[in-house]
Design goal:
Length: 231
């Protein structure tokens, strides 16, 4: 990505903020230090929080008690992203805008170096919100950080012969993820978001958010481990 992009949009997977084994303060501390260091270099960040294990745990529990609509499941996920967003906002207190951004279509002015965002409405994931934010703030790239190192042509957990993909166009990527959004689905990038990203010619970098040295390399324009969508 271009060095010192004025605004960097990061879609931060909920698996990084609130993994199934519990929130990791050490990771949050190190992520805070890295982002704060980049702010000193002149970057501004939009950090969009996913729902992760928190969303899936609530969705699973609700499913076991009642018959839910897709909107029910989406709203549970959305509120999980907002809880994670408020956690991150407090972590970045003093640097972040005091309000968690929930609607990427509304006019929004921020003077702080960081704004925290979360889920908007049913029908798409925070990946879609990230694409809308990139469009709003004229960012050329979205960094999609999760618990996977890169994209594969099939699920490496199920297929030991799965091959890593370092670069792929949107047309071929959308063949992998399909076209429909499923609340709670664990996909590398939301199909609805992918459609819009292709339309506006956005690039997305998929990378392991736990590897903060790798994230630093991405921001510095150095060689990194991950996958680029939209070549």
């Amino acid at each position: 990505m271009p060095h010192r992009e004025p605004i960097v949009v990061i879609s931060l997977g909920g698996s990084l903020i609130s993994p199934s084994e519990g929130i990791d303060p050490k990771y949050l501390r190190e992520f805070h230090a890295l982002i704060s260091g980049q702010v000193k270099k002149g970057y501004r960040f939009v950090l969009i929080c996913g729902g992760g294990a928190t969303a899936r745990a609530y969705q699973k529990a609700a499913r076991e008690v009642a018959t839910l609509t897709r909107d029910d499941l989406d709203w549970i996920g959305i509120h999980a992203t907002r809880l994670n967003g408020h956690l991150l906002r407090t972590v970045f207190r003093g640097q972040a805008h005091p309000r968690v951004l929930k609607d990427p279509t509304r006019p929004f002015v921020w003077k702080q170096p960081i704004v925290i965002a979360a889920g908007w409405k049913p029908g798409a994931s925070t990946d879609y919100d990230a694409v809308l934010m990139a469009k709003k703030f004229k960012a050329a790239v979205v960094l999609n950080l999760s618990n996977i190192k890169m994209l594969y042509d099939s699920d490496p957990k199920k297929n030991p012969d799965a091959k890593p993909i370092s670069e792929i166009g949107w047309k071929d990527f959308r063949k992998i993820v399909g076209t429909k959004w499923d609340p709670g689905a664990n996909l590398p990038f939301d199909p609805v978001a992918s459609k819009l990203a292709e339309k506006i010619k956005l690039r997305v970098i998929l990378a392991d958010g736990k590897d903060l040295k790798n994230l630093e390399d991405i921001l510095a324009g150095r060689k990194f481990t991950g996958s680029v969508i939209g070549i």
